[in-house]
Structure formats: structure tokens, C-alpha cells
Amino acid sequence: MSNETANGKPVYGRILLKLSGEALMGALEYGTDPGRVQAVAHEIATVHARGVEVAVVVGGGNIYRGLEAAARGMDRATGDYMGMLATVLNALALQDALEKAAIPTRVQSAITISEVAEPYIRRRAVRHLEKGRVVIFAAGTGNPFFTTDTAAALRAAEVHAEVVLMAKNGIEGVYSADPARDPTAQFLPELTHREALTQGLEVMDATAFALCMDNNLPIVVFNMADGANINRILSGERVGTLVKT
Fold this sequence. Notes:
By secondary structure, the chain is of the alpha/beta class. It has helices at about 35-50, 60-65, 70, 75-100, 120-130, 150-160, 195-200, 205-215, 230-235, and strands spanning about 15-20, 55-60, 105-110, 120, 135-140, 165-170, 175, 185-190, 190, 220-225, 240-245. It has a single domain (about 15-245), classed as Carbamate kinase. The protein has 9 helices and 11 strands. The chain has a 9-stranded mixed β-sheet with strand order 4-3-5-2-1-6-10-11-9, sandwiched between helices. It has a two-stranded antiparallel sheet with strand order 7-8. Strand 1 (about 15-20), helix 1 and strand 2 (about 55-60) form a beta-alpha-beta unit. Helix 6 (about 150-160) runs parallel beside helix 8 (about 205-215). The two termini are about 10 Å apart.
């Protein structure tokens, strides 16, 4: 990752930020913590103020966690559609917090919910970004059996994002093994897409990862708990793990 340019411009002009639903959960067992949503919105606002075009894909795990018992034994496709609806709830909460911070924001949903969100239209999404609006992509890809990681990789490729920022909770980046289970796990500051695949490292799910590799999309896996990390990445500092071709 190069250093910030001499004129002070960020190293990336258009980013896609992948947020897990848990990033909005805070200390709650499940659901959405308003304080955490505001903190995430503030971090996005500081990035937006630097002239960076920001797209966001948000997961729904924080809400779906409360539905797991009801979904047990359910058809997989039905459960996945429930998860998509959960991401719409998170997208609306984040949109509200961003607009309260005076950041123009649009939610585009991959499933039709015309009363609360625009339909996903690639050219319209790109136009919003060009006009300085934050775009939140909700409802994953709109299809069951695909994760929000895959949605993040797909949307990043479609809108020509320069990098996918994978925000993690309390994890600094990619390790050679699960650091919670293996005390000898080593932190990996940089690796290639192919190295991550051959070593079976869990950067994102395999379908999403293959999309990033095929489209030469770099991925930065970083800790979202530090409120300054996105800005540090955009300033060219080495933060988390960089995965590139």
C-alpha cells in the first residue's frame, strides 16, 4: 500500500466497506446498539469528508441471531431471505445515523422494498457515488445461498471500487490459524489471494474471495473497534492485513 500522495489525497478514491451485523450490535446479545451505529456513522462521515466515495454492504447477523431458534429446521432459502430482510433493517438504521450527521445517503436493496429503499441499479449506484452520496447495499445479492461477503465482492466489482475493506470486531487482521484456539498463530500483514486460498485462511467465504481474485480487487482486513483505522488505511498506513494479487 503506497503512502498518501504529496497533495494529501487519500490513496483510494472509491471504497467498499463490508460491515458485519455484529459491528452494529455493541455489547448487546443481539439487536442494534444506537451508540455503536452512531460511532460507525461518524467514522464513515470522517472518510466522506476527505472526498472518498463510500459504498457499504452490511450484514444481518445481529438481528438474525435473535431469530435463530425460530429458523431452526427451516428451509435454507427461507432462512436466507429472513437474513436479507435483517440487512435491510441495519441499512436503514445506518442511513438514519449518517443523515443525522448531514451525509447524503441512499439505500439500494437487491429485493424490492420500494417503500423504504431504491431497487439496486448499478448505474444509479455509481451516479450516487459520483455525486458524493454514501450508498448502502442491502439484502445481499438478492439470492439465497449467497453470503453478504459475496454481495460485498460483487458490488465492489460492479461499481469499480478500488478496495474492499473488511471490518472485523476485535480482530486485527488475518492470522495463520485461529488465535483464540492456537496461541502460536501468527499475524500475517500481507499475502496474495492465491496464498490465502491454498492455506485455507478465512478472509471471506470462498465464492466472495474468488470474485475478488478474478477482478484483481485488493482486500484489507482490519479491526473496526479502533475508530481511526479506516482513515489510517486511506492515508496509506499499514493497518490490518492486505490481500492482493
